[in-house]
Each structure stands twice: as C-alpha cells, then as structure tokens.
Amino acid sequence: MVTDEEIEKIRKSANIIDIISSYIPLTQKGKNYFGVCPFHEDHSPSMSVSEEKQIYKCFSCGAAGNVFTFVSEYENVKFLEAVKIVADKCGIPFHGQVRREKPKAHAEDYEIMNLSLKFYQNNLNSVEGVKAKEYLQKRSLGEDVIKDFDLGLAIGGDYSLNKLLTNKKYSLEAIEKLGLANERNGFINDVFQRRIMFPIHDLDGNVVGFTGRIYEDSDQAKYINSKESEIFKKGQILFNYHRAKQEIKRKKEVILVEGNMDAIRMYSSGIKNVVALMGTSLTSEQVRIIKGLRAKIILMFDNDSAGEIATYQNGTILEEANLVPYVVRLSGEKDPDEYIIKNGVEAILENIRSPISFLDFKLKYFKKDKDLNKVDDLASYIKEIIKDLKNINDPLTKELTLKKISEDYQVSLDLLRGELNKLEVKKEVEVPQKKLAKTKLSKYDKACENIIYFMMNDGKYVELFKKELGYFNEKKYRNLANEIIYYYEAQGGMDFSAFISFISTKDYIYDDAMEIIKRNKAEEFDRNAFEEFILVAKKEMAKEEIKELKRKIANSMDANEEIELAQKLVNLKKGCVGNGK
Fold it and tell me: Which residues of 453-482 are buried (b: 16+ CB within 10 A; e: fewer)?
C-alpha cells in the first residue's frame, strides 16, 4: 500500500485551488477563494478555500477538509482512491496499489461469501450445469455475461454448499447468519437449490449476497434473495454500482432500473451506466450514493401500473433530496430486458436520448383515471399538482407550472398561487417542530469538540491542553487528543491539512474527527475562548470524579482507604483538578 510519506508528498505537491477548481468554479476574494458548495443545495458561494492552509470549509453545511477529502466526497470514492486521483491530476507518480480491502470486523463473512461464489461458479461449469446454461442461452445470456457477472449454480443434494463450508471449518452459525443454509426438522439444508445464482456486490465490489432464479419448471418462487446480514444491507446497495460507477462519471448520466436482469441486459448490451434498485423504494442511503455521482438521473422502470407508481414514488424521493430526475417510459414490452431482446439496443438508446422531465411525467400521472371534462376530476387533478409543487424548491418551476395549469384550464393564476401559499405556510410551520426533536450537544461536549478543533489547528493549544487538562474521560475525545499529541510531537508542530491525511486510515477516530470539523464554524482561534472551554471540561470531569469517589467510599471496607478517598473528594470539591492531581 502507499506509504504515509508518499501521501504527504502528493498533498504538498497538489495545490488545493487547482484541484477544486477542476470540479467547481472558484473566485478569489482577498486571501481565500470562494465557490458554490457541491455538498449541499447551495445557491450562493458558501465554500471557502484557503491556498495558504490548503483546506476548504463550507460555512453553511460544515463540509471541510483537505484536497483528498474534497475529491473523496465529490467523486464518492475511498480516501486512497482520492489520493491516486489527485496524483494523476498533478502528474505525480503513484507507487502504491489502491486495494479494496474487506472490513476486518467481518473478514470471515467475506471469506464465506467468496468461497460460496466460487462453488456456484464451478457448479455451472460442471455436467450438472448443462441445463442451466441452456436456459441462459435461451435468455440470450452467453458466456460473456456469465463471466462478467460471475453467474453460478446452486444444486443442493450431493453438491451441498453447507457441507463444503463446514468441511472448511466455518461454523454452521456463521453460514446460517449469512442466509446460505437453514435447519429444518433436524436437517441442515442449503437455502439455494436448483437455482441460477446472481451474486450481489457492495459498493466496493465485495460479494455480500445472492439472488437465485429457478430455471426448471417449478411451483416455487421465481426469485429468492439472500436475507440481510451484517455485510448485506439492501438499503445501502445499488446493484451493479461497482461496475457502472466509472462509466456513470464519464457520461455524467445514471440510468436507474427496477430489476437485476434489466441492469445485466443493458450493461451487457453496451449501456454500462446502469444500476438497479434493491427494493421498491429508494432509501436515504441510496439517495446519498446517487447524489454523490453528480450525474443526470434517468428513471426507467417497468412498463406496467406498478412501474408507473414506482416511477412517481422514487422520483418524488429524489426531488425531495433536491435532485432533478428524468423519466423514460418504454412502450410495448414489460421491462428494459424484454425491450432490448425484441427491439434491439438502438431502440432503447433512442428512448434514453429523449427522456421527459419528472414534472411532465407527474402532469400525466395525476391525470390517471380522471375525466378532466368533469369538474370534480379536474379540481382533484389541480389539487394534486399544487400539493406536489409545495415540495419543489425551484421557484421558477413552480411559477411556470402554475401558469401552464392556469392557461390550459382557464383557472385564475392568483387563485392557484393562493392555494399553493396556504400549503407552503403549513409546511413551514411543521418543519421547526421536527427540528426541535433533534438531540443537541451538551455544553460539555461542545467544549470538548472546541478543544479538539483548536488543537488540530494550532500547536500552541496542544501545549496548553497538556498543561491545563491532559486527558478526557470519554474514549472518543481521548483517542483524538492522543493522536493529535502524537502527531504534534512527531512532526514538531500542527498542520491541519496534513493531520487529516495522517488520520485518514485510522477508522477508530477519522469519522469522529470529521464530524467535529464539520460542526465547528470557528475561523479565529482565541486563547481566552480556549481557556473557557478547558474550564467547562474540568468542571464536568470533576463532577464525574466526585461521583466515582463517593461510590468508592460507600463500597469501601478499609478505614484507611476511606480516609484517603475522602481527602481526594475534599480536594476535588475545592477545585483541585487536572494534571493528575
């Protein structure tokens, strides 16, 4: 893997202004540069980039970091992949290998899934796999697709997966936990039997689950999926993402389909910027993944009533996340898979080149089962449109839609605006109530976070911390403080941008550090403010120590120990805290 020294060399060689301006326009104002923040819905430049400090900070959403964290967030890639991207942009040699490492916490789970995949692949290439391959050929899925998508075959019986895995010394509990086997009437059976196996990968390309499809006449369910596990969360995955990501970034367009087979058919037909849902509705995590792609979004769901509903529901979810989806509704065949088989690739490409806006789709969707010549149906139709418009943030779209409705159906524009205003006022009243329910940081937590943030930015506060406080009770603050002190002493000073790179591979503190950076708005670092934070932390830590001493005194069976503990308690109450006193 690439060394810390090489990462630091690349960081120093890359000017953050040059790198960020290759993604978003920056304008210089005084010493710093400003741009529209790409990490939230920003309409005025709220991101500041410092060439001197080689850091960026958004004073609206809190996004902050160095050149690598910007690229990591913008490109939606891991830290080391971002380092390589920056090196490539600067023409700097990158000698390390960016490997997609499996999380150590679930290393055995990944081993089991990989071994299962190889087992299924071997089955498909055995004598037992002849019928399954014939079925795949009939579905126009040849050897190239089998290879590209790692297709396999679950047989069962003498070809039992659970027997193989237990012979390899994996526990039955671990195998069952991953949904590969179950127990019935005292017998252990494979969950997947007589099914063609389609592996499901996480965002980094690790196998985390399977979809099994029947290929022989059977009254069983056509498809069954792996149950969720520690490594397989459907709501955090988009099928085919790991293959499609680079093509999506190149084309700046992502096509979202319903079924795995739709994604496989399109990808193998040369339309490689396609991903599939892992359920009926997008989750907030999937929306975050899509948002991170920063690409035009095209929804291409099944050509039936359910697909139409899914288009509306998922389009609305994306719209509420301030994304602008487009829609392709295929005609004739049920889904993209069948459409390509019957009409060819060029026919579906024609549809993709001419998507309709989600607004135009909704205007048609709301007309469904309505006779607009009837007053009641027309009124219902207009009310649905107005209700929908309250969730759209773009004022121009709202105004143009209202004018269109007014002109098409001879309804007063002022009346339509009035109805929309009523709904928006109601919405504004509801939002603050939701915000009140959010948990706020305590005064103590705010003090600890500020102490950490000051220390990350200036070495003199590291020295003051060591002298005035020296430690934190809470593990997350203690771990961060220890790493800051270690870095400061090893490097002979603090460099905020370099420190972020230094902790990038330290999973146990990196997320906590970035959350603190994101929440903190301080630009100036005042010693008096720092000493106030130290005082708040001391008082709270003293309260906790007093509680602990009282507990020890109550439980003590030794008179001398009680006297010693009581004296410590008196000292603490007098304010004698910190520095080991």
Answer: bbbbbbbebbebbbebbeebeeebbebbbe
82-92: pLDDT as tens digits:
999 999 999 88
Render pLDDT for 504-547 as a digit per residue (tens, 0 to 9): 878 778 889 999 998 887 777 889 999 999 999 888 887 776 67
CA distance 14 to 501: 13
Return the residue matching tokens 């898979």: 337
User: How many residues does this entry show for the chain?
Assistant: 581
Measured CA distances, 285 to 235, 449, 557 (Å) = 7, 27, 54
Q: Is it the case that residue 224 has pLDDT exceeding 60?
A: yes
Mean pLDDT of 336-342: 95
Return the DSSP state at 129. Answer: G
361, part of any domain? no
Side chain identity at residue 155, one-letter code? I
> Which residue range is the domain that position 305 belongs to?
236-349
What's the predicted TM-score (pTM) here?
A: 0.68
Cα separation, 425 vs 215, in Å, equals 56
| Joined tokens for residue 525 | 């670092």
Q: Parallel, antiparallel, or unpaired: how do β-strands 152-154 and 195-201 relate? A: antiparallel
153-184 tens-digit pLDDT: 999 887 899 999 999 999 999 999 999 998 87
Which 8-state DSSP code applies to residue 489? H
Closest CA relative to residue 42, chosen from 26, 58, 55, 27: 58
Q: Tens of pLDDT along 392-430?
A: 777 888 888 899 899 999 999 999 999 888 887 765 555
Q: What is the mean pLDDT of the chain?
A: 87
CA distances to 48, 185, 557 from 561, in Å? 57, 61, 8
Task: Report the C-alpha gap between 427 and 11 in whole angstroms.
Answer: 46
Same domain, residue pair 213 and 251: no
Q: Is 433 exposed, middle or buried (CB count within 10 Å of its CB: 0-12, 13-18, 19+)? A: exposed
Give the end of a domain, one of 375, 408, 436. Answer: 436
Residue 240, phi-psi category: left (phi > 0), alpha (psi -120 to 50), beta (remainder):
left
Could you write out the three-class secondary structure of 168-180?
CCCCHHHHHHCCC
Question: How far apart, in whole angstroms, are the C-alpha atoms of residue 17 and residue 212?
Answer: 49
- Which SS3 state, helix, strand or coil, does residue 128 take? helix
The answer to whether residue 96 is domain-embedded is no
Helix (H) or strand (E) holding 55: strand 55-58
